[in-house]
Amino acid sequence: xxxxxxxxxxxxxxxxxxxxxKAVAEIADEKTLHAVTVLFKEGDPxxxxxxxxxxxxxxxxxxxxxxxxxxxQLVPGDLLGYSVFVEPHRMRAKxxxxxxxxxxxxxxxxxxxxxxxxxxxxFLLVKQVAAALAHRLSxxxxxxxxxx
Length: 148
Description:
Blueprint: H1 4-8, H2 18-26, E1 28-33, E2 38-40, E3 48-54, E4 57-62, E5 68-74, E6 79-80, E7 94-97, E8 101-107, H3 108-117, H4 119-147
Antiparallel strand pairs: 1-8, 2-7, 3-6, 3-8, 4-5, 4-7
Helix pairs in contact: 3-4
């Protein structure tokens, strides 16, 4: 469990009432990642939604040629793990700490259940995830084009 004050710091929870925020805080933990620690790989179960709180996390994709390309470098405040909300709930990229980093990990099954029960929270979170995904997709296209 983490504090509601820590979650309130991030814009993803703007407009979320205190009761809903407390419910999210109860299913979230902070994790420390050492440099070059892989947080998840493409195809892994999407078991958490993450917010980077310190350090830097690289997101990479493997091209058809087998070459791996970093398509985004996440910094404190960035969100990752949108696959939590998209079936079949499998990660679609690789995430690795570039240097020692910390993340807030929000349990996937519990956040989905909470969002189904609290539709306002669900709408606000999915809206934020969609915005982060759109931004990341734009950057990924640029990175892949440069790598080819």
